[in-house]
């Protein structure tokens, strides 16, 4: 294992493949150390700096080993499998589904309610003017039969018919726009449904890929679980879904089998089941910063 260098805020530097900071003269936060390992330099003044090889893909899952660790076991195992070059057939299917998903862009439906109001208003106005035109025609006929002056009535009828023609045109336009927006709304609904179908398909494929990748390295993981001290009371079972035990035990097992370049940061009480630092480091076979 390559040596690492840890520069503390008090000016001291610790070097080695295993750096034990339990007796350091300054307060050290394990999360600060972990962030320095994962993100590298530069580091703000007053924070520890860890100079080491860059982290491997698995490192973020096991960067800080603590009793109460929250550990994505399947994600870590899948990432480990990928780092070893494993691929699964579902990945090509997922690529195709993601490509189809990127092409699904539901159209904006537009203001359908406003279009319906406009179409209804235009229809109502058309009917009102048609009724008015019929009434005026009746008046014109009545005046003509009585031998009276029909000029004023005919002028009113002409004005009404002109307005009726305009409103009828508006009604056709409003109806056409409503039909267009209704078609767009149907297309948007169909697009959303298609997008949801593809998203569900992609999510199912991602879960299947994680399961397959995790299964590809599960024998190594199971061997690492079996090598843990008995006090962890962990059992890997025969498949990724059969693991029983604390998250820390799974994280330690992944650390043991993963090709880590950067160190892991471990809380001091993680050593307790191993009865000492030497046994702990021998189990992990990885660079460690202990605090």
UniProtKB/TrEMBL annotation:
<feature type="coiled-coil region">
    <location>
        <begin position="112"/>
        <end position="215"/>
    </location>
</feature>
<protein>
    <submittedName>
        <fullName>Uncharacterized protein</fullName>
    </submittedName>
</protein>
<dbReference type="InterPro" id="IPR057178">
    <property type="entry name" value="DUF7856"/>
</dbReference>
<dbReference type="Pfam" id="PF25254">
    <property type="entry name" value="DUF7856"/>
</dbReference>
<keyword id="KW-0175">Coiled coil</keyword>
